[in-house]
Amino acid sequence: MSTKSMFEREEIGLGHIAFSPSRTTIETAFYGNNVRKVLDLKEAYRMAKASSGTIALDLPVYKPEEIGLPDDAQILLFNDGETVGRFAGARIILGEKGVVEADYAGILREAVYGTRYKKMLHTQAYIGLDKDFIIKANLLVPETYENTMYNWLLNFQYINDFYNKMYTESVPIGNEPDIYILSDPDWRDSRYPNGIAYFDPEHNCAALLGLRYFGEHKKGTLTLAWSVANRNGYASCHGGLKRMVRKDGKKHVMGVFGLSGSGKSTLTHAKHDGKYDVTVLHDDAYIISTENGSTVAMEPSYFDKTQDYPLTSGDNKYLITMQNCGATIDADGKMVPVTEDVRNGNGRAIKSKLWAANRVDKLEEPINTIVWLMKDHSLPPVIKLEDPVLASVMGACLATKRTTAEKLLKGVDKDALVFEPYANPFRTYALSEDYNKFKALFEERGVVCYIINTGHFLDRKIPKEVTIDIIEKIVDETAEFKNFGDYAGMKTMDVEGFIPDFKDQDYVELLQNSVENRINYLNSLKEFKGGRDQLPEEALAALKSLLK
What we know:
Blueprint: E1 2-4, H1 21-28, E2 35-37, H2 41-50, E3 55-60, E4 74-78, E5 91-93, H3 101-114, E6 120-130, E7 133-142, H4 146-155, E8 157-158, H5 161-169, E9 172-177, E10 179-184, E11 196-200, E12 205-209, H6 214-231, E13 234-245, E14 251-257, H7 264-269, E15 277-282, E16 285-289, E17 295-297, E18 302-305, E19 319-323, E20 326-329, E21 335-338, E22 348-351, E23 362-363, E24 369-374, E25 382-385, H8 388-396, E26 399-401, E27 417-419, H9 431-443, E28 448-453, E29 456-457, E30 460-461, H10 464-476, E31 481-483, E32 490-493, H11 505-524, H12 537-544
Parallel strand pairs: 1-9, 2-6, 4-19, 5-11, 7-10, 10-12, 14-24, 24-28
Antiparallel strand pairs: 3-4, 6-7, 6-8, 11-12, 13-14, 13-15, 13-16, 16-17, 17-23, 18-22, 19-22, 20-21, 25-28, 25-32, 26-27, 29-30, 31-32
Helix pairs in contact: 1-3, 2-4, 8-9, 8-12, 11-12
């Protein structure tokens, strides 16, 4: 599937999916005589390296020619100021209750007018890495933000002959137009001191205004691409997915869903000490076909935290760029980064596709297992969900904690338990669409569902080694599951040191509170955003059946 770049004259105008006030205002900005088009990745690298404030580290990019960079390419570091994470409060999504296009049309026009006083850079990339799903996206940023442009091209798939051919051979997705994203990090409006991320998902366009952090550009682009996928027969996934082939040849495809810091990258890239032949699709963004269960990666690279990677870590060999990290001179007189979040939380880096030598862009084998990664101290390390309705609704009530990847306003408790449906805060469509798609995977395609707690059980942290052992037992089919108390449709596995005691009334009360919190959350969706995210009554009934 591919998007459409140009339209016949009789198609241009009101009533066509490609044209709305927002879309037309944003796209028009790309054609000014102050706009320079940059499609060559090597040119983007040179521009980013020369951009004021960039630090060229004395660290070479590994095998740069294989990822389209000059032979002498260095790892580039560029830092933001106060804000070093995404800000959910900036997101304005056309179609949600209370969001009226006319209220923002003037803001968009004024923002575009403001760009006439700047030199602007226009680049393009592909989102989706297989002819089954490959769509074109456009980004417009001001000069001095060459690093944003370069990172965007590295994170997604830069234009080259191989992917041009794939795009040409892909079947167009009806009249879905290409994605257009306008970014002006220097935009200011006293009404929006933290900036705005405005989305018109039905017309595949967005404006990122007053937002410097690269993650806003990455997830803003994925927001629109996931919307296209949702409209065209795919379940959109924020998580990791890999295939593990046992020694006896049996294959197991597992998807893990979680927010940043949940362990999804760690689990996706775990090598399992050579027990399996492991193939990685991606650790952050992919889509599942509702027709046949196959999966497609949305991007080639990895936007990873640097918190757990000291300077001496071998994984740093695969860095291409870094954001919001320190720098220093080492004993050899070389300019090197200071990682481990010394400068600030949420230090980031883009790692090349070569980080996982076992990478593929598509898996034909249908997905076997879906894992909801949660941080809920009422849950043991693993729960097996045998009822398709309960499996899907627990994904809709995925419990977690906020991380340094997000900018939080004062007074917001970063340690509070929150619900993030399917670990995807970037949804622009009704939650029921995800609910029904995942339910169908469990009910019709026989996908097995688990909850894996990567946080604490009661007051004890669950080590990643325990989690990996659980996954291996699932793949080896040696996991011995038993009833989870008298909770119908739920089973658990005994893990030493983490066995729930249902004779402990304090624990039972804690567990019941966890269920009630989920019920309250689903009830709140009946009013939130005008009830757009309300789920079917069967979802609420499945949770109520757990009350004792």
